[in-house]
Fold:
Amino acid sequence: MTPESIPRFAPGHRLREDAARGRWVVMGPERMFVPDETALEILRLVDGARSLAGIAGALAARFAAPEAEIAADVAALLEELRTKGVIQA
Amino acid sequence: MRPEPPLALLAELTHRCPLRCPYCSNPTQLTGAGEELDTATWARVFAEAAALGCLQVHLSGGEPMARRDLPALVRAAQGAGLYTNLITSGVLLDAPRLAELCAAGLDHVQLSVQDAAAAGGDRIGGYAGGHARKLTAAAVIRAAGLPLTLNAVVHRQNLDNLEQLIDLALDLGAGRLEVAHVQYYGWALANRAALLPSRAQLEAATAVVAAARRAHAGRLVIDYVVPDYHAARPKACMGGWGQRFLAVSPAGRILPCHAAESIPGLDYPRVQQTSLHAAWYASPAFARFRGTDWMPSPCRGCERAEIDWGGCRCQAQALLGDAAATDPACDRSPRHGLLADALAEAASAGQDFAYRQFSESNIRSDRIV
Structure:
């Protein structure tokens, strides 16, 4: 993936609220991931339109943090989820 | 202590099925079509499951495609917010019917195969032409863009074909392969001597899985669990009784697992009379084997008590006649030798099956009186 790559959820995967347990989860085919707070903020911005750079920029603006650091976190998370088949780009 | 809410509902929509697999996981006493829950009742059950905390519903059977109202059921489950997983043999699945299910919001399909090629698959499933229909179904599922899991039920008579089963999963475009060893209850227990694999077969298969996981990383996920009869530790059946899952039978019984009706003396609530919420939190049947208080020695005080949860209650019932005993799959069970005896018996047994069937004697009446 590059900063210009546009990530989206792979078929059969989606982020949804798990209200009974007070959390958000990524549902997939007979599996489930529970993102931590940072991962959740990133995954909320995966909409099939924003690029990796766009996601990092939005988070940097919102949390007033260095964009380069956030870009590295975004790339690491989405690459990990891509190897698990949760994300496509 | 109040239990956690369940994560998933197994909806056994029907016991009807064109196949006759000799290891079918349905009970040996089958429910006829006339006693199946209707569309509106299932829709209510799905809403109750979602409200209770379930995130996913497995639409199963029997063959769920035998229900003509399946698109309406998918729509109801999807509308309730559940992730919808269809567990099918594929023999009744064609492009028009799948299109209806996709339009209704189906998320994923798990397609079973009985062997890697038609001759074995059709013999084991007891249905001529079935294997070819499954291959067509897989192509239709992939063409629709749905994610596909291939479920290969394995045993002595097909385990040596595991490499070909993995190739089949890749050829069909499955993202996931579940190598599911037969679980020996009900129909499968009656066919155990013809199905149990040998230790040598199992070790070869385990090596095949390890190599394939490396070779196909990022393309195919392979789920594989060592079967009870060759394991030292029992499986944590259903993640513990009444702790993570619940099932509803075709006639509406609310169960901690789909085989739980094999245990006598437990009065399972029915969806016609009891909400899933009340069944989960207040029924004696769900409380009976939940947690660790019910455990006998050697489970009681065992450091694995909350890992294995005592193993499988249905297996203890089937093999020992006592659902409250330690699962004999555990090598700390005083009756663990029964499993070695079964393996020895299977080593010299033939290959013939007693196929699953509906007959006068095994269709039960479960009407509310």
In short: Chain B touches chain A through 23 residues (CB under 8 Å).
